Input
Amino acid sequence: MISWDILNFTIPKFVKMKRWPFVLPVIEMVFATESLTAKCFRGSNKGFTTFSKQILITIFECLEKMKLEHNEFIDVWDHLIEITIPLDLMGVVLNEIKLTMQMFLTKKISTPSFLETLIQIYCKPEDKHHSACIEVIGEVVFKALEDRGKYHFYSKKFSECPKYAEMICKHFEKNCTGSEMKKNTFHHLEFALTWPTMSYVLTVQYKKIAKVSKNCQTHLMDIKKSLMKSAKELENGSIQIRKLNLILESKREYKEVIAVIWEHEHCGEFEEGRISYLLERRHKELEKIDETFKHIIGFKELLQCFEENTIDASKLKYKDEQPLKLFLRTGASNKMDDQLNTKDYNPEVQIESFPLELIKNIPRLNV
Output
């Protein structure tokens, strides 16, 4: 076919010269010729999908060899989507262009700067971009988020954009639903402290930057309840030891999400100093409990040397779900005006079935 020979010559030449307006009429001519040929000689458009793929693969291969700006790559596909196509071929051709464009962008998106460009176009599309082009970009970006698990791309310049907020919330919802998060506060807390964009997702809901689904709202409500409960438990010392360990491992993330909730639930400035103070105290109390159990285990081993074994081994370790204050004689301290500051704070530990004097004096044995 003469038109196909012309196209094979034209595409590499004008792609290299970045002269797409010269290429498009040739592509249109090829599609028109093929449509006419199909009707006259085959009586149908059967086999046209393979033909259109050949054209698009040629374009794909040319683009791969070129060094263009990110926006220029998008412009190429934008122009291809807008070419004049015979009515009887429009559905097939448009579908093939979108599939090839998706394949091309997916291959290029591994570059962070290219991903940022795609997000910017998707969130703030200009009039020049075709709706089908924006649709493909949206699918590619969301697929990139899914493929990379907890990968996230957060940028302040997109944070107030509804489409960006909706995309991030959709990603959160899908992972929240698909996770093994059970209906208990520990798993909600764990998810909240390990999800990269948790504070932003909470902000989206509070500020109503984008409309979130009912399912997403339910997940956020469960997470907020868990976070608020943990803050109260941190205050009064009733927090489970495994929760405390989780929070201590993710102090920065915990402060971030609590700050968002505090700002919107209490309508006041977040008291970061207060939370930091409580975390330091609880950490010191937990360390003292661990240290005491270590001494008691050493004492038990010493008794065994004298063939004495009066200590119940089941009492030598706390359970993760037990509250911290169960092991503190005076309860967990939470007063910022205590005479003793955190540095000098020496919590008194109590353990069931062990006399207080024994607990106090065991460290002197250096066991």
